[in-house]
Backbone:
């Protein structure tokens, strides 16, 4: 499949308060973000004309920047509005939405208090993150070569670009070894998350998920925990050791892009997408499209 480069497409990108032609939405090579990773972003999905949990994503973008010590010069309402207008301007109804904020080129040194914060929002049509057929059967994962860092080592509560270098390397390693994704441990050796999604396990009808104390507490994660509670399942947030993986019967990932994706394999462990994973997967798909949820 030929790749269509992301800097060579038709359409409009919202940049610092106005729409610019897609190909003109550029930055200079001496941009602080490019050298020092002073960049935060969001990943959102529009379903049937509505961006799911838009407010929460816009709030997280602003919070992520504050954690990196820069301020986004737009309000939550303005970011919400700009996100919707970006989809409308590009004629999108079902889309992936990517807001990003970064320090500009005024200062190119570690300290950059005078740098201007820029914000851009782009959106494009986007099908499933994992192939829908593969998704139902469950994806195959291996252990990631990297661990999530200590919150004293990195700003782990921020959706910061810099935290993704270990995700990209880990995902590439998984791809090369014939897997769909990689599961990361944290700095203490507990199970943490996938390279772009949170992880859940099932044992004896209860759902277990790692405590998000050094990685992103995903918006999808919270949503799926709510759905599981509504369906009457017990959800246990706790530290999970890798040795426990053999005691679980089901496993699934959650994320804006991954939605609810069953997992069939993590290294030597095997899981069968079962009742809980598949009903949460379907329930989530209905919820994001604002259809009536079927009571479990
Ligand atoms: N962890 C990582 C590393 C991610 O990139 C994502 C996707 N944003 C998530 C978890 C899930 O977060 P959300 O449900 O808010 O998309």
Residues:
């Amino acid at each position: 499949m030929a790749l269509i480069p992301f800097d060579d497409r038709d359409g409009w990108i919202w940049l610092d308060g106005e729409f610019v032609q897609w190909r003109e939405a550029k930055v200079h090579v001496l941009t602080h973000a490019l050298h020092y990773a002073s960049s935060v972003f969001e990943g959102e999905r529009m379903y049937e004309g509505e961006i799911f949990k838009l407010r929460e994503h816009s709030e997280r973008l602003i919070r992520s920047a504050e954690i990196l010590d820069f301020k986004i010069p737009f309000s939550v309402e303005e970011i919400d509005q700009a996100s919707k207008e970006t989809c409308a301007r590009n004629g999108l109804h079902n889309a992936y939405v990517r807001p990003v904020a970064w320090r500009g080129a005024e200062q190119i040194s570690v300290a950059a208090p005078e740098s201007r914060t820029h914000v851009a929002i782009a959106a494009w049509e986007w099908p499933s993150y994992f192939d829908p057929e593969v998704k139902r059967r469950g994806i195959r994962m291996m252990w990631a070569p990297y661990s999530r860092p200590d919150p004293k080592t990195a700003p782990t509560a921020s959706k910061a670009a810099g935290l993704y270098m270990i995700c990209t390397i880990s995902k590439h390693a998984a791809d090369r070894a014939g897997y769909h994704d990689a599961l990361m441990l944290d700095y203490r050796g507990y199970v943490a998350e996938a390279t772009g999604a949170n992880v859940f396990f099932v044992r004896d009808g209860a759902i277990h998920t790692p405590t998000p104390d050094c990685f992103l507490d995903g918006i999808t994660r919270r949503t799926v925990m709510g759905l599981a509670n509504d369906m009457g399942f017990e959800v246990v947030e706790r530290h999970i050791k890798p040795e426990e993986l053999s005691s679980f019967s089901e496993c699934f990932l959650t994320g804006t892009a991954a939605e609810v994706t069953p997992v069939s394999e993590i290294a030597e462990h095997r899981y069968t997408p079962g009742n809980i994973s598949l009903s949460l997967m379907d329930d989530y798909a209905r919820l994001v499209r604002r259809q009536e949820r079927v009571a479990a």
Remarks:
- The chain has a mean pLDDT of 95.
